[in-house]
Amino acid sequence: MSTETKYSLEPNNWVKNYADFLFNYTVTRVNNHEQAKDLVQETFFSALKAAENYRGQASERTWLISILKRKIIDHYRKINSKKGKAELKVNFYEEGDKKGSWLEERVPQLWDNKVENDIENTELKDVLNKCIDNLPDKYRTVFILKNVEHFQTEEICNEMGITSSNLWVIIHRARHQLRKCLEDNWFAK
């Protein structure tokens, strides 16, 4: 006979019970207090909308963390997309009559003698992004989560449903494919 615990949701207690934990979890991953607050709020909102789908197989906290992890991944996907970059605002003055912000893509760049280096870096970045985009879906996702977003091995394994040894094989193969792609498309020029 199974004595499986059936959990229930108590949305009225989420802020009191989980807000601090979720905020601390998020701020270490996005390194921005305001963005972390927004992601936690989005998590609570999404959880409320999805409450009818909650099956009680995981604790409230575990369920909220899984929603939050997806919000963090979506946050980085948005930042890394052209559309997301256009929506990010960068403050150039915090207060006073010059207070304001720029869209990230339109922030004035410093003028210096590094124009050629900047062009090369941009071209290399474009080639690298194309190489990453050409990785198989699973390789690309694991590579980005581990090397770009710096998620812990255990988190990635749980999210992707893979073992840690499988993760490292995927990382190795992704790096090998990226090296080959860069050799063919960048260094061979």
TrEMBL record:
BP GO terms, sorted: DNA-templated transcription initiation
SUPFAM superfamilies: Sigma2 domain of RNA polymerase sigma factors, Sigma3 and sigma4 domains of RNA polymerase sigma factors
Keyword Aminoacyl-tRNA synthetase included in the entry's annotation: no
Family: Belongs to the sigma-70 factor family. ECF subfamily.
Domain RNA polymerase sigma factor 70 region 4 type: 128-177
Origin: domain of life: Bacteria
One Gene Ontology term of the molecular function aspect: DNA binding
The entry's keywords: DNA-binding, Sigma factor, Transcription, Transcription regulation
Span of domain RNA polymerase sigma-70 region: 15-78
Pfam family, one: Sigma70_r2
Full protein name: Sigma-70 family RNA polymerase sigma factor
